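Reposting from the mailing list since nobody answered there.

I have sequence plus structure tokens for a pair of proteins and want to know whether others read the tokens the same way I do. The first protein:
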Amino acid sequence: MFNLFKSLINGTAFPRIADLERAYLNASASRFDLERRQREVENGLFRRSSFDV
């Protein structure tokens, strides 16, 4: 239980958006897939608010 609070305070309980974006880009299968994924990230795939429609 102490480790949970410690990770929440340190900010390591949830992955950062930059880490999620990097992992998404690293999972690309080809150069074309990477370019498509880069455009999606640039357009805010991971940075959209849940309130945007």
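The second protein, same order (residues first, tokens after):
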Amino acid sequence: MNIETITEQALKLEPALRAYVAEILLESLDYEEDFVVSDAWRQEITSKAQ
């Protein structure tokens, strides 16, 4: 699978799932700053992913 296909498929996801994927990708990068996600937002993302 190439990056164009992955991007195309990801953009078809509903917004909460796109945010979840974006969060996971950002967390996988080696940044010195943490990307803080509130508990409420994490619950929203999790509920949409199921």
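Reply #1 (J.P.):
I read it the same way you do. The chain is about 70% helix and 0% strand.
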